[in-house]
Amino acid sequence: MKYRQLGNTDIKVSEVSFGTWAIGGTWGEVHDDESLRALQVAMDEGVNFFDTADVYGNGHSEELLAKATKGKEADIHIATKFCRQGDIHDPKTYSEEMVRQYCEDSLRRLQRDYIDLYQIHCPPTEVLKDGRVYEVLDKLQAEGKIRYYGVSVESAEQGLLCLQNENVRALQVIFNIFRQKPLKELFPAAKQKGVGILARLPLASGLLTGKFTETSTFAQDDHRSFNRNGDAFNVGETFAGLEFAKGVELSRELQWIAEGRETMAQAALRWILDQEEISCIIPGFKNVHQVTQNLAALHTPSFTKEELERLQKFYQESVHPHIRGVY
């Protein structure tokens, strides 16, 4: 395992870390015993950072992390998120009373004294412009409830807005071969400010594994079914904002990236790791096999200059025009 500095914090995170949305719910069938085994395998392989949120399984992911990391709290870093248990457009959701309650609830579920990275969970742009929520986070940091804070954003523009606050230490962004926009302005600006970048949805909800066809189906409780067109939350969170059939078609055109790299998924993860601004990738998982497959990206050959140029052209000409939502 290799480790990278999380921006200008004193935390070093494993290049391949993991997100825990899938083991909490809304990704189809999942079993806690298998989730815990997968978490253990990840830690045995050197993974020292996990991302979660209070709404993943209504706190269930946080509880699983508490079980998996018991006795390892000093060595395993956890990032969690808040605000989506309330009305994200209501200013009260970001009041000191509510944020403090969200924080205390997460600490209780995580069975920890502090949260390594506390993130605002995809708030509306007006909340970021208002900025008063940062004052609350500054208080929690001063009290030792959180070590650092950051923001999980939906768009590059939101990310640039967050960088105006000097205490924001990390940005979590949707970034993958289908979502390359952050490379242009956001990543260079974050690097200049010393802000870490967590790349979420690195496989575009599974599209970049190459395993789906136009007739693939998903369980009713899987967001790839109920949020396919943004009916439950931002459309960009599902299939990178691409209409499913179009995403499958585009993924088929990308099969060449697996040549000499074992699998398409490992190649897609390697492409992200090759970007110097990235602190870590946080793919999801539901079992041990998915953990080990994602970790294999560490040993996957990097892309050549010509390949990188080909992927950039593919994004600009074939993908970008079809992404829906604000990104």
Automatic annotation (TrEMBL):
What are the residue boundaries of the NADP-dependent oxidoreductase domain, all occurrences included?
A: 16-315
| GO MF annotation list | oxidoreductase activity
SUPFAM superfamilies membership:
NAD(P)-linked oxidoreductase
PANTHER family in UniProt: D-THREO-ALDOSE 1-DEHYDROGENASE (PTHR43312), NADP-DEPENDENT OXIDOREDUCTASE DOMAIN-CONTAINING PROTEIN (PTHR43312:SF1)
Q: What is this protein called?
A: Aldo/keto reductase
Q: Which organism is it from?
A: Anaerobacillus alkaliphilus
